[in-house]
Amino acid sequence: MNQPIANQPATPAESAIVYVVDDDESMREAVRTLLRSVGFAVETFASAEEFLAFALADIPACVVMDVRLKGQSGLVVQERLSAERSRLPIIFMTAHGDIAMSVRAMKAGAADFLTKPFRDQDLLDAVADALDTDRKRRAQDRSLDGLRRCYELLTPREREVTVLVVKGLRNKQIAAEMNLSEITVKIHRNQAMKKMESRSLAEFVLKAGVLGINAMPTVPAPMRPVRK
């Protein structure tokens, strides 16, 4: 961290934070000062245990963490977060890294692996990329949650029709499959599309696919006279 900064990233959004974990106080403070100099909000920790005990904010974030820490190592922290299904991007830094260590970290999903001393710009770029990744991931999660809430509004019959629509069956085929009239199928399909906020059949099928509905088994409807 000893070269001038060039081509600084765009000013970070206020609602994002960088967690810095390093047991070397001088390094920890240097990283915090650098990140704050370009507008990043920063929280620092002297150990893995201190970081893991901290209540993380529910906003876009990433971790800048030394691999070798007193107590639990950075790789152990990575494993703990993974076990908790956390997808917080981690940027590792180390002065004693080796190929095996970096490969292990990257295979486990690390966002980057920087060897000390590194350029200021390399860290800034890595942090900007990690925060952008976390923002996109959160946006995708919100979109998926919205889709699930829409799908929960469907009646059992509308869900059956949806499965068959996604499988590529036409209204007439669905009517025969479910022992319903074609007009009834159309009504169920249109209601399902409306609840799923789909403006077209293609959009409806796409949203259903995102929810994994294309992998759902078809539940046979009980035999009964065709309803007019």
- CATH class categorisation of the largest domain: Alpha Beta
Q: List low-confidence stretches.
A: 3-13, 217-228
Terminal CA distance reads 76 Å
Q: Which secondary-structure class do the elements indicate?
A: alpha/beta
**Fourth-tier CATH superfamily name of the largest domain:** Response regulator
What's the helical proportion of residues? 40-55%
CATH architecture of the largest domain: 3-Layer(aba) Sandwich
Q: Please outline the major beta sheet.
A: 5 strands, parallel
CATH topology group of the largest domain: Rossmann fold
Principal-axis shape equals elongated
| Structural domains: how many | 2
Number of helices: 9
- The beta-strand count equals 5
Roughly what fraction of the amino acids lie in strands? 5-15%
Strand order of the largest sheet: 2-1-3-4-5
Radius of gyration: 25 Å
Mean pLDDT: 86
